Amino acid sequence: MNGKKSISFSQHQFFNLNIIFLTWRRRNEVEKLLLSYKKKNDENPFAWKHLLQYYEYSGADQEYLRTLQAYCKKWPIDKTMCLKLISHMSSSQHAALVANTYFSLLDYSCHKDDVELWEKFHEFLAGICYEEDSKVWEEVSNQWKWRESWWVSYHFTDRTGAEQPSELFVTKTDVHSILKDM
Q1: Would you say 112 and 152 are in contact if contact means Cβ atoms under 8 Å apart?
Q2: Out of 15, 115, 128, 130, which residue is the most buried by the measure of CB atoms under 10 Å away?
Q3: Share above pLDDT 90 across residues of the chain, in percent, rounded to a whole number
Q4: Alpha carbons 89 and 84: distance in angstroms, whole number
Q5: 60 pLDDT more than 70
Q6: What contacts 72, CB < 8 A, 6 or more positions away?
Q7: Is 24 left (phi over 0), alpha (psi -120 to 50) or beta?
């Protein structure tokens, strides 16, 4: 034996990973532990989030972004994590990923009336309107064409019957105007 104790835990134990990470000097073992835990519990988003938290606090930016991207692909309904991914991506360099992430989030009924999300999507679309890169528009257009047949009735129909359109409806109308002109 080399005198070092190995790190292990039962998947049912609860502990604060921040404390372990910040107080333990054996970072490579913590990473191995978290990778092993994620592998054994791949369908548990918290296993992924613990690893993401470790990467974020340890400054492992490439691993963080790679893992965050995989997480968002696996759980595209998680608004908080998907918006973290979007915030780390440059709109012009990663427009396809950003567009796909917004579209995927808005496919879920829990986000259908999320004003913040629709405003961010509108801001993204308005921002790329001025891009000269045709690949950006092509990717967004492809994402839209795949959804157009059902998004129009799902998202862009005012069912409130209100005399004055809501802020959400106005934002959705603006988004629809941009998308239909593609």
Answers
A1: no
A2: 128
A3: 49
A4: 9
A5: yes
A6: 78, 81, 82, 85, 101, 104
A7: beta
